[in-house]
Structures are given as structure tokens and as C-alpha cells.
# Entry
Amino acid sequence: MALNIWLMYHFSSCHQHYPLSSHPEFSVIDYSGYREYRVENQKLVTTSKTRKWSSYISSCFIVGSLSIGYRIFAANYYYPVLVATLFVVLNSTLFRVLYESVILLPPHGIQLETHRGPLSSYPVFSIKHFIPASKLSGVVINEGLRGWNVLFYLVAMWHTENRGTVLRVAYQDLLPVHPILLQVLEGIHELILCSPVHIKEDVP
# Structure
């Protein structure tokens, strides 16, 4: 099953469009037989010229920090400074979130993905959670608070034999705005939850 999903994902023809003009970080990609709702890291949705200058400034910052650190600290403290600087740089570039996706695979289920890496076009790491349609009991948009800000998040509820009902948050790192979540929710209901196969499985 996992191999079939990987082959479909990498070798299918696709059509990508942006349904919300006010949110260019959100796109819908229609493949042959399935659909992806992708949310890119809004901080990375820039022009190529801006990306080039950003990379140049980051490189100058790294070189400058190491040079200044070597002059200020004694030789014994150079390597700890080097390690600390590399850790900060790697954490902010190599492991940064590039985009997150909710992939609808009717009638099999949905897959939640988070992709990380230093370059926006080439993810290095990815985390994927597949939820079978037969176990998916519902998808809702919840409301929460972070400080004084109101946040909305998409939650998939699915049943497991060992732990009962499990909640899985989609786009948990980027937390897109409500209009984006509404588009994804409607797609899940249309292609997965309201599909004839899923309805038939729910009938006792």
C-alpha cells in the first residue's frame, strides 16, 4: 500500500492551482486519482531574487559570526562557539518546515505530511501519517488560543483498537488561517467521508 502511494505521488501527472488569491501559500494539486492540499511556509513564499539575497546575507552572517567569535574568545572557546553557531544555523535552515500537506487518497484514506529542508524545492526530511478511511470517524475545525491570538486548526479523529479515539492535527507547524482549513475540510468531506465506500463501511 505504501509503495503504491509513493509511486502515485512521484510519477502521476498533476495540475496545481491556487483557489485563494489572498493566500498564495495555499495550493491544490490534482493528481490522477488523488488530491493534495499543500500549505507552504509563508516566510519562504518569496521571489527568487529575494531568496538569493537572503541566502547571501545568511552566509555572510555565519562567516562573520565565526570570525568575530574566534577573535573575542580564546582558542579554547572557539570550538564550543562553532558548535553552537552551527546548531542554530542548521536548526533554522536544514530542519525548517518547507510545506505541509493533506493528501486525499479516495477511497483509501488521508495522509498528513510535513516536509523539512534547507531549500524550498528540495525537502530532505518528511513525516507522514496515513489514516485509513475505515478508521476515520470525522474531521473538524477547532478553535484555540495562543496568548491573545485566536487560532484555528484542523483535527482528524480516527479510531484505534489500543488507544481508542486518536486526534491528529493537520498543518500543526504552520497552522494556516480559517479559509484554508475550510477548503481542506470541504475536500475531505467530498472525497473521503461522503464517498459511497466510506458510507457503506459505516453501515452496521
About this structure: The CA atoms of residues 83 and 89 lie 10 Å apart. The first strand starts at residue 14 and ends at 17. Residues 48-93 form one domain. Strands lie at 14-17, 26-31, 35-40, 97-105, 109-116, 125-132, 136-146, 149-160, 164-170.
